[in-house]
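Hello Y.,

Per our agreement to keep a running log of every chain we model this quarter, I'm adding this entry. I've kept the format consistent with earlier entries: sequence first, then predicted structure.
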Amino acid sequence: MHIGSRPILPALLIPALAVLLTACAAASSSGTPDVTPSSPEPVSSAASSTTPSPPSPSTEPSSAPSEAAQITQTDTAWGRLWDDLPSGFPIPPEATIADDATAEPVSGVFAIPGGDPAQIATWMQAALETATYSTEALSGPLEDGSMVLDSTGEGDCRIQTVVAPAGGLTLLLVRYGAACPNG
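Predicted structure for the entry above:
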């Protein structure tokens, strides 16, 4: 159909197509959220040849959740323990959380690249003593090369730290007794 010398249909379609193309372009550019993945911090794979000094209580790293989170307890063959460590619990600075490293119930499990179990156990002993826990026993190396540190706190508080070689890693498993403060 024509009115005068210009066709009506193409004149009406051009603005409609422009609106449609603009809407499609806007939808495709905002349809996917802009997510920038964060890269993990590098972890040194070289084992330290010297025993690290224990941290001061004010600079101790923590693996514990925020205080708003409710920490639960579990009964084990070792005894009742907290399912997580309190904030400020001393952990070697090169350790990373390794929750999938063991199926047994523990309060915390960490992996340390390389590492000498005896040096790590000695570091943990000094760090726990700095944090006012007493050493009951430091055993090892056992047949598998692991070390076991048994510590006590006020009242019936007891902590067991196992430092065990596992291939190119050293695992640090902590059982933090239910009689120990959790915060």
